[in-house]
Structure formats: structure tokens, C-alpha cells
Amino acid sequence: MKYMILLYASQQEYDLMAGKPTDEPAWSAEDVAAMHAFMASWNQDLVDSGEFVDARGLAAPVHTRRIRGLQDGVPVVTDGPYPETQEVLAGYTIVECDSFDRATEIAARITKSPSPGDASGAFIDVRPIIEGIEELEA
Amino acid sequence: MTTAVTDDTTEGLLRRLAPQVLGAVVRRYGHFDTAEDAVQEALIAATMQWPHDGVPDNPRAWLITVTSRRLTDLLRSEHARQRREDTVAQWTLPDQWLAPAADRPASAFDDTLILLFMCCHPSLSPASQIALTLRAVGGLSTAEIARAFLVPEATMTRRISRAKQRIKDSGIPFGMPPGAERTERLGAVLHVLYLIFNEGYAATSGPSLQRSELSAEAIRLARMVQRLLPDDGEVTGLLALMLLTDARRPARTGPDGGLIPMAEQDRSLWNAGYIAEGVALITAALPRGTTGPYQLQAAIAAIHDEAPSAEATDWPQIMALYELLMQTADNPVVALNHAVAVAMVRGADAGLDLLGKLDADERIAGDHRLHAVRGHLLEMAGDCVAARESYQAAAQRATSFPQQRYLNARAARLVDDQ
């Protein structure tokens, strides 16, 4: 069974990690390195256990283009549609594992990632990937 | 609940598929508690639709689809209610990281076993373990379980929902317990099946001595576990014990519903098929590995079942097996049975001496069985007055009507003989 683990961040958090202070102090190079090391090892564990399928990180929310409807027969493109503090999709990891509980356990480990700021408001979502009823039948 | 649920009836099919469907859905979406309700609704839908529309080509897939859909609906209404009440469905993961099982992918059969492990989780009371096992693994409705245990349906509903809540709160993930824990947890599963069987075989209360449908259900579940773990001697031992005990059921009560002791039973009424199957199982299991208590009890039952009469029973062998059984656990009921075997081998006085030691054991001193056995042994020894007093004391303490009637009849017979 496949599950998508979705990670969220706001433009402001991207900025802090990039070393740009906002109303909170920016991350140091060591902070960023520690976080990268943690995520690399989290990822490697999944590769080792055979549960890793795919993972991608997304560029900062400011680099977003939203295409909306048609105006006079022409699609309208909006650049950077998100407010600075809105938590938006920042990356995902797809795992293939035994159960929803297992996927949840995998995702919950990310909460141990070192962070200089207050990470209590951070969240991660886990969602089942639909691949048809055959998967439940296996 | 019907007495004989065979695999080829719709009910048999549904009951067999129920744990597989629940396992598949909980594995995929979690929410053991709500998914269990959803399965019950899918089973009802199948019971109503299949007789008219025919059984679907893939009944398991049909049930999984209906259950998943129903689970989605139930979760949405639960979430809406929780938001209205301003609470969030929240649970805490156990803070441990376990490597996934590397051996092989999970199958529907593993799911059934995992469900049994969940339902018999040590955080639940035995009464809750039994009720939840019958519902989630046995596929029985709450009403059926309540009827079998002679409690109001509302009581059983509360018991089951509390049990499910407790499992949810405990945060145990849906998966096989880790290796070291597995043996211990399997012990709990076997004990629950044993209790279900006993509840059916010797009802502890109420007018009907044998609620045989519970015994039949326990045998069905034990067969299922034995198919999943054919190499486990105790699983095989438990199934054999149930079959060899249940084999005597047709001869155990008279036409008036009264209890007939084994020595006086018409052995031609015993279920020869069950005896053959039970003997074959225990014969195959005994030489393999360590011999646990279920295998020992099955071996004892096999000796009884194969004896042409009470007198022609191999009592020395039974006495020796009870001695082995007493070494596995300190159980006063086992000691009581041992005393009976000793009396049959060495005479009533030797047995009565052993009963004297049990008087000091408060776990059984007030139990009707100790007094009933003493009555029998005193009667064997020819002390009719003391025997009658013991039977009367036993009758006062027995909880089921047939047992009381049987014991009072024994006491009355001794008066007539004088």
C-alpha cells in the first residue's frame, strides 16, 4: 500500500532556512546542516527497509504560478498567490508499507527533526494513495 | 446465532470473510473502532442483498468496497460532531521505532490473526476480550453476543464500545506483535477461545447448561487459528481439547435437561467424528516440541473418549498426565481432577486425603466442585451420610439450575437408599 507524506512550510519559513531573518531569527548554517542530516538519515532508513518509493522537495512558495479559469477565453496566470505566512505544500515522500499505522509511524519520526525555532505549530499529513481495490485485495 | 454455521451458507461465508474485510480496511485506513462498525453494516447489507441479487463474483471485494464507503461516511459524521463539540480526535503514537517485518507481505490470514491479537489485548478485561473477539473476528452481532451471554443488549453494546475505545486509546498499531511478545499474546488469544468454549460448554449461570452455539463458535475460531499456525502445539492442543470435550455433549444431559456424569453417560452417543479428529490432532502434536497445558488436557480427554467404559479407563495414565499438568501451573481445579484420578487408581480414601489439602485453598474452598467431588468420593467409600451433606453443600453453591438439580438428586438418592 502506498501513502503520501506531505510536508508543509510558509514562505516565511523558507526565508528563515535560507538565512533571512523575519520577526524570528534566521537559521544558522549549522541548524540547516543538522536538519538536512536528519532528513537524509530518515530517508535512508526508508530506502534500507524497502519502503521508499519517491520524494521531492518544492521550491519556495513565491515561485508558484496559479492558473485560474478563463477570462475572455484566455487563461489567467497569477504569480506567487500565497500570503507570506500561509503553510503550503513544501515537499512529499511516497512510501510503500504495510499499513496506515506504519505510514503514520514513519511520518511521525519527522517531528524529531532538529529546529532552532518553535516547531510546535508544524504539521505533517499522511494520505493513502488510491491504486484501486486490487490493492486492498492483495 | 445458529447452531451449525457451515462454510457453504451465506452466513458461513460472511462470518469467514468478516475478519479479512476488517483487517484489509483497518490496514489501509486505520480506525479499528469505526471500521468495525462499518464491517457490521456491510454484513447486514450483504445479508439483505445477496439472497435477492445473488452472491457477487468476488464477495470479499464487494464487502471491502461497501465497508470502505461506510467508513468514510461514519468518519465524516464523527468529525463533524467532534468539531461541533470543539474537540479533536487525537491520539498519541507510542514512541518507538520498529523495523518492518522483512519476511513476506501480509496476507488476509495474517490480518485475521492480528485482529485476534488486538481483541485479546492485555489492556482489556477477559469479558471485553471475549465480546470483542466474537464481534470483530467471529462476525457476530452485538445482539447475538448479548443473547449468548444472557445480558441485555445495551450492556453488551457498552462493553464492546468501551473495549474499542480502550484499544484506540492504547495507540497500538495494526500489525503483528514483535517476536518476543508474540508467544505471550498468543497465549492470551488461546485463553479467550478457551473461555468462550467453556462458557458454551458449562454455562456458569442461567437455566441452559449448554449454550452449545458458543462452543461451536469457539471451535470454529480455534480451527481458523490452527490453520494459520499449524505448527504450534498448543494451538493444536486447544482445538483437540475442544473437540474431545464437545464430543461428549450429546450424552451429557438427559431428556429432562439434567446433568449426567461421565461414568453414567451412554458412550454410543458420543460424537465419533469429533473424537477421531481430536485424537488425530493430539497424536500428531504430542511428539513435537514442548508439551503445554492444552496438549496435556487434550491427552486426558482423549483417554476418556477412547475408553469403552468408566471402569475400563486408563486411570493411571490420566493420573500421571494430571501430575504433569500440575507442574505447568498452580491451579486448584487441576488438583481437584487429580484427586479424582488418584481415587480411581488408589481408592477413595487416597483421593479424600488430597481433597483435605484443597480445603485450605481459598480459591476453591467455596466452589461447588470441591464439595461435589467430595460427595462422589465419600459415596465411593460408602459413607452415605457424609456424602449427602457434601452434595447438599455443593448444590447450595452451584450457580446453574441443572447443576443444582443434579446435586440435589444425588443427595436425595442417598436418602432413598438408606
Summarize this structure as a short list of keywords or feature phrases.
heterodimer; A: 138 residues; alpha+beta; Alpha-Beta Plaits; 4 helices; 6 strands; B: mainly alpha; disordered N terminus
Number of strands of chain A: 6
Write the CATH homologous superfamily of one domain in chain B. Tetratricopeptide repeat domain
Radius of gyration of chain B: 24 Å
- Shape by Cα distribution of chain A: flat
**Which structural category fits the helices and strands of chain A?**
alpha+beta
Task: Indicate the CATH class of one domain in chain B.
Answer: Mainly Alpha
Number of helices of chain B: 19
Residue windows where pLDDT falls under 50 for at least 5 positions of chain B: 1-5
Q: Could you name the CATH topology of chain A?
A: Alpha-Beta Plaits
Secondary structure category of chain B: mainly alpha
**Would you tell me the overall average pLDDT of chain A?**
89
* CATH class assignment of chain A: Alpha Beta
The backbone outline of chain B, from C-alpha atoms, is elongated
CATH architecture of chain A: 2-Layer Sandwich
Molecular structure report:
The complex is a heterodimer of chains A (138) and B (418). Helices cover 30% and strands 30% of the residues of chain A. By secondary structure, chain A is of the alpha+beta class. Chain A has one domain (2-132): 2-Layer Sandwich (Alpha-Beta Plaits). The longest helix of chain A is centred in the N-terminal third of the chain and has 21 residues, at 29-49. The model of chain A has no long low-confidence stretch (mean pLDDT 89). By secondary structure, chain B is mostly helical. Chain B has a domain at 315-418: Serine Threonine Protein Phosphatase 5, Tetratricopeptide repeat, CATH 1.25.40.10.
Structure in a nutshell:
The complex is a heterodimer of chains A (138) and B (418). Chain A is α+β, with helices and mostly antiparallel strands and 138 residues long.
Element layout with pairings:
The complex is a heterodimer of chains A (138) and B (418).
Chain A: E1 2-9, H1 11-17, H2 29-49, E2 52-57, E3 65-71, E4 74-79, E5 88-96, H3 100-108, E6 124-128, H4 133-137
Antiparallel strand pairs in A: 1-5, 1-6, 2-5, 3-4
Chain B: H1 10-29, H2 32-53, H3 59-84, H4 108-119, H5 126-137, H6 142-148, H7 153-170, H8 179-201, H9 212-228, H10 233-246, H11 249-252, H12 272-285, H13 293-306, H14 315-328, H15 332-346, H16 348-358, H17 368-381, H18 384-397, H19 401-417
Helix pairs in contact in B: 1-2, 1-3, 1-4, 2-3, 4-5, 5-7, 5-8, 6-7, 8-9, 8-10, 9-10, 10-12, 10-13, 12-13, 13-14, 14-15, 15-16, 15-17, 16-17, 17-18, 18-19
